[in-house]
Amino acid sequence: MKNLSSWLIVMFMIMYWAFRVVVAFMGSMDMDFFVKPYDVTIEVVLLFVVILCVPFIFKRKLWAGLIYLLAYGWYLGVPTFNGIMSMINGETLPVDTLMQLFTGLIGILIAIFAIFDILFDKSRKANPVDKKTDWFYKNKDFDRQLDERADKNNYRMY
To answer: Average model confidence (pLDDT) for the chain?
Structure first.
């Protein structure tokens, strides 16, 4: 991860995960918080799935980004979509529903940005180019050329 955008996306993923931990904790304790989980059990499972995916997203693995996007899209997508459609239809929504909608939209956008960042990363190859060492190891000018006069014995000096 060499781009600032990649670092920022991973930091926002971790901050959003910590926010969802607080939401799950407050929901399981039946305490008042401005966001309530849709289902506490699924929220806790989702937290474990996401915390397992974050290091692999940091390592630029496409499958981890897809799992992250599908998990948040499945959990937050339907309520967010329903809230947006209610707003389009002209219904006035209470403040707590608007906060649910806002936080769900943020979670889905972070997942979309993460998958696009992984897809468009140029260094995500089987053999990435490292300019710090490739100038030496992949340059024929620095290879040692042996001729017929070269000593082929390996003498050791102690």
So the answer is: 84
The number of residues making up the chain comes to 158
Domain-embedded: residue 156? no
- What b-and-e string marks burial along 7-17, b requiring 16 or more CB atoms within 10 Å of the CB? eebbebbeebb
Distances (CA, A) of 98 to 41, 44, 48, 58, 95: 23, 23, 26, 31, 5
Residue 113 lies in a domain: yes
- How many alpha carbons fall within 13 Å on the CB side of residue 145? 5
Q: Per the domain annotation, does 152 fall within a domain?
A: no
Cα separation of 10 and 59, whole Å? 11
pLDDT digits (tens, 9 = 90+) for 116-131: 998 887 665 545 566 6
Question: What's the DSSP call for residue 141?
Answer: G
Q: Which residues are CB-neighbours of 24 under 8 A, at least 6 positions away? A: 37, 40, 43, 44, 47
> Is the pLDDT assigned to residue 158 strictly greater than 80?
no
Tokens 């929220």 correspond to 43
Number of domains in the chain: 1
Domain range holding 34? Answer: 4-137
